[in-house]
């Protein structure tokens, strides 16, 4: 079991993080698409500046994790800045072209509702499952295709 920083385990237990990783793995079984969950303590910002933009940061992380290099441009990043209480979902161009902005809003809003209800694990598990079903619909599995993005929760 990987060690996770205290700020991450205040919101998610080690079991929660393992469950999220297992959900990512299960969601990807029926698709050639890729899903990644990334947690950060806070959105980086300069001293004296207000809290940053979660979508801009998630887009930066998406590229830093090289998720834009998947064969079919079908990767999705679910990003949570834990202490800032912000989140964003970034779908690469292949996914976004098929689902549109309204889909991402719906998934985000469902996550926010569960987070406000004190169910952070459910928020991410349900989002991963929902995204996985959409990826299965538009990006069927390709035999022999390697997993291009790790399933574990990445922490930055």
List the helices and strands and how they pair.
Blueprint: H1 6-9, H2 14-28, E1 34-40, H3 54-64, E2 75-81, E3 86-91, H4 93-116, H5 120-138, E4 154-155
Parallel strand pairs: 1-2, 1-4
Antiparallel strand pairs: 2-3
Helix pairs in contact: 2-5, 4-5
Average pLDDT confidence is 89
Radius of gyration: 15 Å
Coarse shape: globular
State the major sheet: 4 strands, mixed
Order of strands, widest sheet:
3-2-1-4
Number of helices: 5
Strand content range? 5-15%
Would you identify the regions where 5 or more consecutive residues have pLDDT less than 50?
A: none
> How many extended strands?
4
Q: What name is given to the CATH topology?
A: Diaminopimelate Epimerase, Chain A, domain 1
CATH class category? Alpha Beta
Termini separation: 17 Å
The ordered string of helix (H) and strand (E) elements is HHEHEEHHE
Integer tally of domains: 1
CATH A-level architecture: Roll
Supply the helix-strand structural class: alpha/beta
Describe this structure in words.
There is one protein chain. This protein has 156 residues and is an alpha/beta fold. The protein has one domain: Roll (Diaminopimelate Epimerase, Chain A, domain 1). 47% of the residues lie in helices and 14% in strands. It has five helices and four strands. It has a four-stranded mixed sheet. α3 links the parallel β1 and β2. α2 runs parallel beside α5 and α4 runs antiparallel to α5. The radius of gyration is 15 Å and the shape is globular. The two termini are 17 Å apart. The mean pLDDT is 89.
């Amino acid at each position: 079991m990987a060690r996770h920083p205290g700020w991450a385990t205040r919101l998610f237990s080690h079991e929660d993080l393992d469950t999220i990783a297992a959900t990512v793995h299960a969601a990807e079984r029926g698709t050639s698409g890729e899903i990644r969950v990334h947690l950060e303590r806070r959105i980086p910002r300069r001293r004296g500046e207000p809290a940053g933009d979660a979508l801009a940061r998630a887009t930066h992380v998406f590229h830093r994790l090289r998720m834009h290099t998947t064969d079919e441009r079908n990767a999705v990043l679910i990003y949570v800045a834990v202490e800032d209480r912000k989140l964003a979902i970034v779908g690469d161009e292949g996914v976004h072209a098929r689902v549109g902005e309204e889909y991402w809003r719906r998934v985000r809003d469902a996550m926010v509702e569960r987070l406000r209800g004190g169910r952070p694990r459910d928020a991410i598990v349900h989002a991963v499952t929902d995204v996985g079903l959409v990826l299965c619909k538009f990006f069927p599995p390709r035999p022999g295709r390697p997993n291009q993005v790790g399933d574990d929760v990445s922490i930055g």
